[in-house]
Inverse folding.
C-alpha cells in the first residue's frame, strides 16, 4: 500500500514542483499563464495569502519595479498541513480500494506522472 501512496504523492509532488519551481522571479502575468489562471486570480491569491501572513512581498534586489514573493514560516506550515491532508486522503483511498485496484491506480498514476513530466 505504501508504494501506491508514495507514487501518488510523487505524482502530486512532480506536478507541484513543475508548476511552482520557476515562480521565484516571475511577473504576475507569467505566473498566471503557467498556472492557467487569470492575472486577477493570482493577484487575489497573493493578497489573501499576504493577509493571512503566509506570504510576503519583497523588493527585487536589482529591479525596483519587481516584487519577489516569499513564503513565511506560517506559509510553509500551511503547505506542510496541506500536504498532510493530501497524504491522508490518498491513504484512505488506497486502503478502501484494496490490493488489486490499488495496483491499477499505481499504474495509472505512473502514466499521469510521465505525462506531467513530458508536458
Amino acid at each position: 500500500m505504501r508504494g501506491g501512496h508514495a507514487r501518488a504523492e510523487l505524482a502530486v509532488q512532480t506536478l507541484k514542483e513543475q508548476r511552482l519551481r520557476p515562480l521565484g522571479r516571475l511577473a504576475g502575468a507569467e505566473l498566471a499563464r503557467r498556472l492557467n489562471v487569470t492575472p486577477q486570480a493570482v493577484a487575489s491569491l497573493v493578497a489573501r495569502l499576504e493577509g493571512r501572513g503566509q506570504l510576503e512581498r519583497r523588493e527585487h534586489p536589482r529591479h525596483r519595479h519587481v516584487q519577489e514573493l516569499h513564503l513565511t514560516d506560517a506559509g510553509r506550515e500551511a503547505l506542510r498541513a496541506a500536504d498532510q491532508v493530501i497524504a491522508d486522503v490518498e491513504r484512505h483511498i488506497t486502503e478502501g480500494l484494496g490490493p488489486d485496484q490499488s495496483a491499477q491506480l499505481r499504474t495509472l498514476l505512473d502514466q499521469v506522472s510521465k505525462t506531467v513530466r513530458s508536458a
Observations:
- The chain has four helices and two strands.
- The chain has a mean pLDDT of 81.
